[in-house]
């Protein structure tokens, strides 16, 4: 069993190498073992390319016969961008297949393992399943809901402020924390801020990782009145990543056409109900294959997403500074709640040091409260 854990751990390590390049497909790693030794490895390197199992089988060649395959996700059983992996596994005469989790994709859902068993190949599922689910949390959410996995991110002071009373916010978090968040951007398909953040900070919202040619997410601005300045850095870098401005009926045709003239896509979602507008936007993004969304906006946008029950994960960076001031902005604005019993409940799964800061990772508890069915 100890060796099996090592092999599956290696498969998960390999899967991680595809981070940022496989979307909206999952991260998958594969290890072929024979006579107690690893004979070949593979991982899903990019969307549309060969899957992890195929890379490993090609590397092993004829040696794959009689081997055991350790793979972080159930082998596919359908024709998509590539042929079914389970057919290749059977043709290579692999003796046993061990996967971490089954694939909830409606086109698979156990059919891959069933196909292998029908051909006399021993299968098992569940080894390091918790780690595998965490690794593929974006894919698992997207494939089962059809909407992007939403990560809400906040950087704040010890006393819970995201800016001074004058609006200054650069920089609350440390260089190390900001570098870490650029690594997060590299993993997400889209990034969102509100118009308030655009007007106050003029952000670029691209990925900047030293020595790495990172992936730039699609940049989305919630801007009901189409106030995004055409001389903003978003448009000065329009060649680096697309910009989507989400407007409402409050924006005039002329304002929207001006934004289009500098390269923006204008997406009009009417209505005063911000929650309904967010849900509609997430549905639209999902239909476009956008599997993940990083929300980096201010307190108003954060409040809207939490109230809409649209947050799957929350990252909070706490810097060792005190800002003070009753008028200083906080991470979640809006009207708040009148009773603590109605507070949105989260489970903290990790707290770690990043430079001088503390990074907290939390997931919502699903219960009824003012902020939605958490």
UniProtKB/TrEMBL annotation:
Entry binding sites for NADP(+): 155, 169, 171, 197, 201, 224, 298-304
Pathway linked to the protein: Cofactor biosynthesis; riboflavin biosynthesis; 5-amino-6-(D-ribitylamino)uracil from GTP: step 2/4; Cofactor biosynthesis; riboflavin biosynthesis; 5-amino-6-(D-ribitylamino)uracil from GTP: step 3/4
Cofactor: Zn(2+)
Domain CMP/dCMP-type deaminase: 2-115
Pfam families associated with the record: dCMP_cyt_deam_1, RibD_C
Note accompanying the cofactor annotation: Binds 1 zinc ion.
Positions with a binding annotation for Zn(2+): 51, 76, 85
Listed CDD domains: Riboflavin_deaminase-reductase
Residues given in the record as substrate binding sites: 185, 205, 208, 296
One function term, GO molecular function aspect: NADP binding
Enzyme Commission number: 3.5.4.26, 1.1.1.193
GO biological process: riboflavin biosynthetic process
UniProt keyword list: Hydrolase, Metal-binding, Multifunctional enzyme, NADP, Oxidoreductase, Riboflavin biosynthesis, Zinc
Catalysed reactions, as listed in the record: 5-amino-6-(5-phospho-D-ribitylamino)uracil + NADP(+) = 5-amino-6-(5-phospho-D-ribosylamino)uracil + NADPH + H(+); 2,5-diamino-6-hydroxy-4-(5-phosphoribosylamino)-pyrimidine + H2O + H(+) = 5-amino-6-(5-phospho-D-ribosylamino)uracil + NH4(+)
Active site: 53 (proton donor)
Protein role: Converts 2,5-diamino-6-(ribosylamino)-4(3h)-pyrimidinone 5'-phosphate into 5-amino-6-(ribosylamino)-2,4(1h,3h)-pyrimidinedione 5'-phosphate.
Family assignment from sequence similarity: In the C-terminal section; belongs to the HTP reductase family.
Protein name as catalogued: Riboflavin biosynthesis protein RibD
């Amino acid at each position: 069993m100890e060796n099996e854990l090592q092999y599956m751990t290696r498969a998960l390590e390999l899967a991680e190498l595809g981070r940022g390049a496989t979307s909206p497909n999952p991260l998958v790693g594969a290890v072929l073992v024979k006579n107690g030794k690893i004979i070949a490895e593979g991982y899903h390197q990019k969307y549309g390319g060969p899957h992890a199992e195929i890379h490993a089988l090609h590397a092993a060649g004829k040696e794959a016969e009689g081997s055991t395959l350790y793979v972080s996700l159930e082998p596919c059983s359908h024709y998509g961008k590539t042929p079914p992996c389970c057919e290749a596994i059977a043709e290579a005469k692999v003796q046993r297949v061990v996967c971490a989790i089954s694939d909830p994709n409606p086109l698979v859902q156990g059919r891959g393992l069933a196909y292998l068993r029908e051909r006399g190949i021993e299968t098992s599922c569940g080894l390091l399943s918790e780690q595998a689910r965490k690794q593929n949390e974006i894919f698992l959410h997207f494939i089962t809901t059809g909407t992007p996995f939403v990560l809400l991110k906040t950087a704040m002071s010890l006393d819970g402020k995201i800016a001074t009373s004058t609006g200054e916010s650069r920089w609350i978090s440390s260089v190390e924390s900001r570098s870490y968040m650029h690594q997060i951007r590299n993993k997400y398909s889209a990034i969102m801020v509100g118009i308030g953040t655009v007007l106050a900070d003029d952000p670029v919202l691209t990925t900047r990782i030293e020595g790495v040619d990172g992936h730039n997410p699609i940049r989305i601005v919630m801007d009901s009145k189409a106030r995004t300045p055409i001389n903003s850095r978003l448009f000065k870098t329009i060649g680096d990543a697309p910009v989507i401005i989400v407007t409402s009926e409050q924006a005039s045709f002329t304002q929207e056409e001006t934004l289009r003239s500098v390269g923006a896509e204008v997406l009009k979602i009417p209505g005063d109900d911000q929650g309904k507008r967010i849900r509609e936007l997430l549905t639209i993004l999902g239909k476009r294959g956008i599997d993940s969304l990083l929300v980096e906006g201010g307190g108003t946008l954060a409040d809207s997403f939490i109230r809409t029950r649209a947050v799957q994960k929350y990252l909070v960076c706490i810097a060792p500074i005190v800002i003070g001031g009753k008028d200083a902005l906080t991470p979640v604005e809006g009207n708040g709640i009148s009773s603590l019993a109605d507070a949105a409940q989260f489970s903290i799964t990790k707290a770690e040091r990043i430079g001088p800061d503390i990074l907290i990772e939390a997931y919502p508890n699903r219960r009824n409260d003012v902020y939605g069915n958490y």
